[in-house]
């Protein structure tokens, strides 16, 4: 999940296991949500997105779940691979104007061999 | 397509100097934005643009100026650099704020 401060939450999983990364978003008016993966020294890379009229969306090896009641978003990665090691950010768009994304502080996913 | 390109990749400035971070995209996206990322943090929106000639402020606009004279380019200007502006800067583009935003590789800026 998300936290304040300089130290990112860390999730350590065994290679081949499923990973679940959680995110609590802040704005009940947000209607668009997105997950990004960021590897060291690179820009964020799109993983999957979901709109507020959906509860679940699946991609290749990834699933995003949206619970609007408790303002919670999760990313599930199936059969985690070494290449999945990265920092994962959730982000929301609050819907009103053309403002960009509001990002969470990220979760560092570490894959154990 | 090159996607979103940013120059320079690295820059060191002294306090009070000015510089422009360049951003270009070749996807014909109307929406472009600038973010900064500080250690252990998520990205924060500096400025954004919904099309040529239109710009607006994001969450942390102080100390930065932008302009959008063409669809392709969205430069970010630091008029008088301060150590608090030491950060990694990312430019992004998309069809709209509610679609996937494509990010550039970033510019790592250090202000001494």
Describe the structure.
The complex is a heterodimer of chains A (113) and B (112). By secondary structure, chain A is an all-beta fold. In chain A, 0% of the residues lie in helices and 50% in strands. Chain A has no helices and ten strands. Chain A has strands spanning 10-14, 19-24, 32-38, 45-51, 56-58, 62-67, 72-77, 86-93, 102-103, 107-112. In chain A, strands 1, 3, 4, 8, 9 and 10 form a six-stranded mixed sheet that branches. In chain A, strand 5 and strand 6 (62-67) form a beta hairpin. Chain A is globular. Chain B has strands at 4-7, 10-13, 19-25, 31-37, 43-51, 54-57, 64-66, 76-78, 87-94, 102-103, 107-111. The mean pLDDT of chain B is 95. The radius of gyration of chain B is 13 Å and the shape is globular. With 112 residues, chain B is mostly beta strands. In chain B, strand 4 and strand 5 (43-51) form a beta hairpin.
Topology:
The complex is a heterodimer of chains A (113) and B (112).
Chain A: E1 10-14, E2 19-24, E3 32-38, E4 45-51, E5 56-58, E6 62-67, E7 72-77, E8 86-93, E9 102-103, E10 107-112
Parallel strand pairs in A: 1-10
Antiparallel strand pairs in A: 2-7, 3-4, 3-8, 5-6, 6-7, 8-9, 8-10
Chain B: E1 4-7, E2 10-13, E3 19-25, E4 31-37, E5 43-51, E6 54-57, E7 64-66, E8 76-78, E9 87-94, E10 102-103, E11 107-111
Parallel strand pairs in B: 2-11
Antiparallel strand pairs in B: 1-3, 3-8, 4-5, 4-9, 5-6, 7-8, 9-10, 9-11
């Amino acid at each position: 999940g998300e936290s304040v401060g300089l130290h990112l939450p860390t999730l350590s999983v065994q290679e081949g296991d499923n990973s679940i990364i959680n995110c609590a978003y802040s704005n009940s008016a947000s209607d668009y949500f997105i997950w990004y993966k960021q590897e060291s020294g690179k820009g964020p890379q799109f993983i999957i997105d979901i709109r507020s009229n959906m509860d679940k969306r699946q991609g290749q090896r990834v699933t995003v779940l949206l619970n609007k009641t408790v303002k919670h978003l999760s990313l599930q990665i199936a059969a985690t691979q070494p290449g999945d090691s990265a920092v994962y950010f959730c982000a929301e768009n609050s819907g009103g104007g053309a403002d960009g994304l509001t990002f969470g502080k990220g979760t560092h996913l570490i894959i154990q061999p | 397509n090159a996607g979103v390109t940013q120059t320079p990749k690295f820059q060191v400035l002294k306090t009070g100097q000015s510089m422009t971070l360049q951003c270009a995209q070749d996807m014909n996206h109307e929406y472009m934005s600038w973010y900064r990322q500080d250690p252990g943090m998520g990205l924060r929106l500096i400025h954004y643009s919904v099309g040529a000639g239109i710009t607006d402020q994001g969450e942390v606009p102080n100390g930065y100026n932008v302009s959008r004279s063409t669809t392709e380019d969205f430069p970010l200007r630091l008029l008088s650099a301060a150590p608090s502006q030491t950060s990694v800067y990312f430019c992004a583009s998309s069809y709209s704020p509610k679609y996937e935003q494509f990010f550039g590789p970033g510019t790592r800026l250090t202000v001494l």
